[in-house]
């Protein structure tokens, strides 16, 4: 039987320690990038464009995810500022990363004159695959877990011993919520590829991602014991409890610390509603006319070379303009 807890340090390079968390996150980013580049090339997008975009998006996503988490846990980080940059210890909030990535990505594609929704449909399955892989970093760090459960419960999930024992934290076993979300995201990755195969309306792969990921996150988040929270009004608490109530038939919710509303659940609920609204609204108003496999991924502004030729073309002097006008007038009279 597997007994040892996995060491969070993968290997050492002299005085430097390389953590499994970073290795897993890097692997997730690399696989997602390869997938996005290949699909981009199939859709007529140069691979350098995807690579350039990722050079901006990936650091922005990490910074955004960390800032989001630090801001909502400021009471701790104000007392331990040295831990703010310690991302290898965990503490990357995916919603913060998504917000930063979408903002930077939107600015990038507008500068490159690329259709944002079409590029998002190309990239977004890679994002979900990266999230599925990245959750195993939480597994190594023994974080992002749910409430206490029995070993028999984990065995009933047919998990291997090495996962079960990693969920043994200080003598107690816990819900492997990282595993639930990873599997949910992996199924969603396949679903997005299937949707894309049938050539949906442009943007609907992105909107499907918003719905699928957020739906799973809403219910799984309710099991966790480390959720970022805030104190909300009673009516909001009642709504969240009502929506999560089907899960309560099988599991007890995880304990909350410091508030009565889980931020990730609220954001997830909003994203589900926004995703559904955008699909329905764009179809109802006739805005969803383009399809995923339609050509011309790059919009057609005036090219730089054409603009340059216009700027370089010498303008006629007033005298030349007048002479040319008189000549054209005489020519017109002769033809008449």
Tell me the number of structural domains.
1
Query: What's the shape?
Result: globular
Biggest sheet strand line-up: 3-5-4
Average the pLDDT over all residues and give the rounded result. 86
Protein described:
The protein is mainly alpha-helical. The chain has one domain. It is 63% helix and 6% strand. It has 13 helices and 7 strands. It has helices at residues 20-42, 47-72, 74-79, 94-111, 116-140, 151-156, 161-166, 177-197, 204-221, 234-248, 263-284, 304-312, 318-335; strands spanning 9-13, 16-19, 148-149, 168-169, 172-174, 229-230, 261-262. The strands form 3 sheets. The protein has a 3-stranded antiparallel sheet. It has a two-stranded antiparallel sheet with strand order 1-2. It has a two-stranded antiparallel sheet with strand order 6-7. A hairpin with a 2-residue loop joins strand 4 (168-169) and strand 5. The longest helix has 26 residues, at 47-72. The radius of gyration is 27 Å and the shape is globular. Mean pLDDT is 86; it is low at 302-316. Belongs to the Lgt family. Its EC number is 2.5.1.145. Residues 327-336 have a biased composition (Basic and acidic residues). It is an enzyme of class 2 (transferase). A 1,2-diacyl-sn-glycero-3-phospho-(1'-sn-glycerol) binds at residue 135.
């Amino acid at each position: 039987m597997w007994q040892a807890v996995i060491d969070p340090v993968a290997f050492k390079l002299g005085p430097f320690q390389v953590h499994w968390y970073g290795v897993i996150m890097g692997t997730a980013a690399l696989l997602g990038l390869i997938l996005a580049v290949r699909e981009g090339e199939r859709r007529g997008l140069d691979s350098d464009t995807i690579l350039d975009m990722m050079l901006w998006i990936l650091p922005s996503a990490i910074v955004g995810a960390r800032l989001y988490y630090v801001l909502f846990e400021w009471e701790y980080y104000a007392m331990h500022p040295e831990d703010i940059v310690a991302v290898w210890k965990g503490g990357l909030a995916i919603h913060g990363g998504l917000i930063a990535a979408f903002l930077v990505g939107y600015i990038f594609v507008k500068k490159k004159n690329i259709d944002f929704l079409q590029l998002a449909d190309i990239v977004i399955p890679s994002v979900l695959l990266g999230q599925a892989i990245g959750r195993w970093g939480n597994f190594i760090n023994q974080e992002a877990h749910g409430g206490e459960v029995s070993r028999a419960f984990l065995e009933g999930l047919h998990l291997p011993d090495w996962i079960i024992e990693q969920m043994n934290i200080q003598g107690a076993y816990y819900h492997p919520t990282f595993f639930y979300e990873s599997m949910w995201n992996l199924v969603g990755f396949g679903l997005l590829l299937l949707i894309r195969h049938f050539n949906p309306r442009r943007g609907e792969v992105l909107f499907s991602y918003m719905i699928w990921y957020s739906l799973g996150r809403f219910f799984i988040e309710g099991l966790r014991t480390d959720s970022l929270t805030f104190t909300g009004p009673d009516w909001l608490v009642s709504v969240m409890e009502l929506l999560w109530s089907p899960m309560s038939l099988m599991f007890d919710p995880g304990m909350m610390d410091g508030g009565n509303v889980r931020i990730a659940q609220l954001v997830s609920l909003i994203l589900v509603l926004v995703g559904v609204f955008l699909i329905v609204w764009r179809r109802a108003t006739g805005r969803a006319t383009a399809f995923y496999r339609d050509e011309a991924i790059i919009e057609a502004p005036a090219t730089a070379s054409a603009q340059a030729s216009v700027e370089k073309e010498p303008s006629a002097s007033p005298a030349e303009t007048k002479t040319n006008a008189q000549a054209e007038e005489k020519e017109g009279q002769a033809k008449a």
